[in-house]
Amino acid sequence: MPRHDSQQAVLRIVVVSALAVVVGSTASLAAIGFVEALHWLNDLLLVSPYARIQRADQPALVMLATVLVPTLGGLVVGLVVHRLVRERRGLAPPDAILAVQTRRPPPDFRSGLASTLAALLSLGAGASVGQYGPLVYLGSMFGALAGRLHLPVRNLRAIAIGCGVSAAIATAFNAPIAGLVFAHEVMLRHYSLRAFAPVTVAAAVGYVVANVFLHRPPLFQVSFAGVAHSYEFVLFAVEGVLCAGLAVAFVRLIQGSARLASRLSVPTWGRPALAGLGLGMVALWLPEVLGIGQETLRFATIEGAFGRTELALIVVAKLLVTALCLGFGFVGGVFSPALLIGILFGALYGLLLPELLPIPLSGQVVYAVCGMMALASSVIGAPLSTILIVFELTRSYDLTIAAMVAVVFANLVSYRVMGRSLFDLQLRQRHFDLSQGRDKAILGTHAVADYRVDDCILAWPDETVAGVQRRLGEGKRAEAMLVDDQRRYLGTLHLADLLTEPAAQPVAGLASPPALVFDERTSVWESMEQLPGFIGEAVPLLADDGRLLGVVPEEAVIRAYLEIIHDLRQEENEAA
Amino acid sequence: MTCDRKRTKRPSVWLAALGWLLAAPVAAESVTELVAESGAESPAPTPLTVLTWGGAYEASQRQAYFAAFTDATGIPIRTVHYDGGLADLRRHLASGDVTWDLVDMVYADALAACDAGLLEPLPAELLAPSPTGVAAREDFLPGAITRCGVAHLVFSTVLAFDERAFPGVKPSSVADFFDLERFPGKRALRRVPVGLMEWALLSYQVPRQQLYNLLSTERGFDLAFRRLDQIRPHLRWWTSGDQPARWLEDGEVAMASGFNGRFFHAQVTRGAPITVIWDGQLLDYNSWTILRGSDQVAEAHRFIRHATRTEAMAALANRISYGPTRYSAQWRVGRHRASGVAMAPHLPTAPSHLSGAIDRDHDWYARTAGLRARRFEAWLKRDGEAQGDAD
To answer: How many angstroms separate the Cα of A232 from the Cα of each of A294, A345, A370?
Structure first.
């Protein structure tokens, strides 16, 4: 037996590692292709400053492109989403999280491709949305594809999705450690060795593809000499708290904009064009709001690049247009805009501090980076990953320590106010509530109906007390379910109540009103919540039209709970 | 298959070379005969007019290219001084009487002039193969051969300083050029919007790969000019390539931008106390082009073919520290003709100099010519007004 076990383990390790390499390299190449295509589109469509300045001699053309490209881009995005994505919305990290956590199949590959195309067009046309959300989803798609294979590994799909996501992040940020932590922190939400090993392999593969094969330049080089004064850590913490406030405002604005969009009489597919028009108008006057804004991100680390009012103006404008674009149906993420808003806010904070406090400080760069990471980590709910991203992007220990303090305080506050992240909020709207951990969320996705039993004793209103008593005795039960001719549930007959009634009396009217009933949608979690105080053998399970489908004995609810929890614990503690 | 192709290709190459060798002296002879017979009235071969950059560079070209060409073809070369840009070419073309034939242009200017229709497109099979028979397309650096131009050398615009001005700590980076506190003294820059914006932004620690993206925004230009404002009271503008080396030598300025070959020439031939800061060197190419409307296009083609031969390019690199754009010529670069100094460490393409080099974005340069000129002139006019006020 032990020999057989170890053979199995070796086979599994080989299979899972190979899977990690394949998924990792595919996701990584796809991520690079996506980013390249996006930059190509930005240059082609006069979104990037680099392309715009080369047409500086044709100002009318640039102005026209500024308004028309996002508008028409929005129209195309709207149509792509409406026609080709089955869900009729952009697919995003929450869809992948849901698939990983509930073990249900994710949206199909074709919808995923269409959604990725829509994201590419959104970003290519300069919409103020992020690129990392679509990249994460793209990575998860290849993971989900590999997860369909019939391999002797439990929870294969979740592991494979984790691999795809970690490789995508490792490639996109040139940050393999952050990629691997992100996959655990946001997707898997546990750290079992069985998942950890392949996800790490995939992150390393993503790094190798990006650096060794394709020599991608580092994303964000800043020079920073170090935090000069110890009291500045207090200022970083304060900045974190302020950023949490901004993160909450950002999330609320996105949700508000989505509500506003749903109240408009414009069809869903027409809404992105509307947002594009709004964006284009703002960009005529403030071109910094267009696209991902890599140039603006870099300028925020240069002292003197912006004035105070200018910074405040761009922060507000970028907040509003990002909420507009996301709420009105452009497809894209929230991370890049959050980075940009955060770094501009951080720069503003760093610019204002010397005027408020008469003490020497370490300069604007560190405050800008702290702001960037604090805001972004609160929005996506991944403090560890963002701290590691700072470390891997800047390779500066001093900056990382400073950012760490800001990130933690930002998350402490934002978690209290709005919950862990925008992703979790979106999942809660889809009735998957991770706010109290995986246990509750996953118990909430299992229907108690799956645990029903059919062999209950039925009774009809015209039956006599004696008849029902006899059948209860034969079945050794104390309860019978009273139903009408259409099997509609009328109440529960308790043996104890029947004993005092005349034998020939029909049982109609003797049933006690239902103390508790479940329906097909009642989850294991809800049934656990409702069960305390229930006295009886089993809870009737009813269809929407009131027909009795079966009963759920108390024992079945407890069994369901134990099975699911056991399964989760096993997943979280699996060795390689 | 590849063997076959080589076999068929080689004879044709040799035939072509042979044909050219035979034809050239014959042509030259026939011209001299004509001259002899018809006396004063005879049509002596019209000289080819080449626009080039004067000074030590032109002197090297005269030795490595022009003399050999005239020897081989009998066609004399007349040079006209040129300091870059398209304006001179436009003016000359507008005059209606085109007397210029060849122009030695920087790469981005050649692209822009080609787009603007100021240049003759070059035939595909113009260039000679290497001595070992490698086709020109494979022997030149990628991108060297364009529609209207052949890039023939790599030069760089570098910052350099007068060693006597800084007896203690020496400047070593672009940021030092803008640091008047640690390195006081006059600065000299070329009076064109080339290179100085890049250097100004580099002094903010912007990574080299992001320079042109940032310079594509208003903010980037503003930041760059703001940095230049800080040294403006100490700035002197040069216009001709030989000025910066001379000014450094004469102690008129402490630091200057200039073409690396000119600084090299001053160092080795005159022992000038000049040191080059290779950090932030702006790599560029010079291209041979033919002005549209030249009445000697065929002769100009002959010249380009002659001057871009491996031997000719290596001969130039042994006279001035500009790197050849053909691999076969790079391998033939040896010691400086006059001083015996090994040339390789003085070429902009030396590996140790490349780590801090700015890869000039030629497309960006070609398409922003007008904008750069406008912003630069506007800044020059705004004299002193913004100094000291950083907001």
So the answer is: 27, 17, 12
Give the mean pLDDT of A521-545. 88
The pLDDT value recorded for residue B383 is 65
Rounded to an integer, the average pLDDT of B362-375 is 89
Do residues A81 and A89 lie in contact, with contact meaning Cβ atoms separated by under 8 Å? yes
One-letter amino acid of A262:
S
Instruction: List domains and CATH numbers for chain A.
Output: 2-213 (1.10.3080.10), 232-434 (1.10.3080.10), 443-565 (3.10.580.10)
- This prediction's pTM: 0.83
Count CA atoms within 13 Å of residue A452 on its CB side. 22
Optimal mutation site among A42, A302, A306, A309, interface B, most CBs of chain B within 10 A? A302
Lowest-confidence region among A74-78, A114-118, A340-344, B125-129: B125-129
Q: State both tokens at B247.
A: 């000014």
Beta strands B187-190; A479-483: pairing state: unpaired
Query: What Cα–Cα distance (Å) separates residue A394 from each residue in A400, A403, B179, B391?
Result: 8, 11, 26, 28
Select from B209, B213, B225, B364 the residue whose CB has the most chain A CBs within 10 Å, as the one to mutate to test that interface.
Answer: B213
**Which pLDDT belongs to residue B38?**
40
CB atoms B370 and A222 under 8 Å: no
Give the domain range for residue B12: 2-153+286-330
Helix axis angle for A109-124 and A132-146, nearest 10°, is 160
How high is the pLDDT of residue B339?
83
Q: Do B219 and A306 touch (CB under 8 A)?
A: yes
